[in-house]
Amino acid sequence: LNVERGELRRKPMRFKHIREPFNALRWNFTKLHDKEIMLYLRCEDRPITNDQLDRHVIAVNASPLERDHSLIIPSINKCLPQVLTPTAIRIATDIMLLVADESFNILFNSLLGQASVNHLHMHCLYWPYESDLINRRFEPLNDLTDVYIIEPPNWLCSAFAFQLTSMHDYDSFRSNLSRCVQFLTEQNQAHNVFITRAQPIRTSGPVQEEDRSRTRPQYVTAYVFPRVNASGAKPPTNFNPAANELAGCLTSYTIRFFESASEQSAVRIIEEEALLESSVFQKLALDFSDILSNRPPGTSHCSQNHLLEIRTEDCQFRVL
């Protein structure tokens, strides 16, 4: 329950496209006061960017979801629009590796995906409950071994998953995640990103399996949720399904909803406001797998249709 978040949050802006140019006349993070900037980020041995004038900051969130909820603003001086960049993903990955607390998460909401400000930023916060998404069974994406997907009914909504299991995969993890959000942006598909620590992704066994003994390693894991495009973040009534909510971490903005909410009512809101049709996600997933495999987009989709035709003919043959 966070009534103040609903009442004090800055009035959401409305957007028409996932990639809108930065508008200096609208509210942006260059208007932050010095006292709202908590620290500047830099890496001495591997500079975050080649531009020595770049300033990457962590700033106070004026209407936090939870205690210590802050904003990560990459290249604040460049006034970039709210499109996740490789630099932002590098910063998010490095911060996740630096923070040992398993309750620490980093979130990103695109335009048309509940972002309220068109100035590149991510959210970071400690959440008191872990997402049940980390306990779910996934499927490999097509013929790839390091990209996974999950769909209803195994989870509330469809998602891609990427996991950093060793520093040897540091570059490929960031590259795959960058290419995923770039692909969705090019498709004008709204999306939310939830980065956390999770047990090794499973592709077999039960749909849900908790690590109650806490013996399994916890890896930096990114979940990307393609979602229905929304014209802008609406004024909160019950809750707005953004990155945290699609990962199963809900915040209620009203006492009434908090006292009456059920799993069914929360799922219904997500289905109505965020859930992509299965056919839309499947096409996105297959096209993205083609891109990662350096195939023309649509190749896997045609192969899947051909396989379906073969299976249909086989069924007809058996019936005859």
Automatic annotation (TrEMBL):
Keywords: Cytoplasm, Guanine-nucleotide releasing factor, Hydrolase, Nucleotide-binding, Nucleotidyltransferase, Transferase. Residues 147-291 form the GDPGP1-like C-terminal domain. It comes from the Eukaryota. The keyword Iron-sulfur does not apply. GO terms for biological process: glucose metabolic process. Pfam families: GDPGP1_C, GDPGP1_N. Residues 1-124 form the GDPGP1-like N-terminal domain. One of its GO terms (cellular component) is cytoplasm. Its EC number is 2.7.7.78. Its main location: cytoplasm. InterPro entries: GDPGP (IPR026506), GDPGP1_C (IPR058865), GDPGP1_N (IPR058866). It is found in: Cytoplasm. One of its GO terms (molecular function) is nucleotide binding. It catalyses: GDP-alpha-D-glucose + phosphate = alpha-D-glucose 1-phosphate + GDP + H(+). Belongs to the GDPGP1 family. Specific and highly efficient GDP-D-glucose phosphorylase regulating the levels of GDP-D-glucose in cells. This is GDP-D-glucose phosphorylase 1.
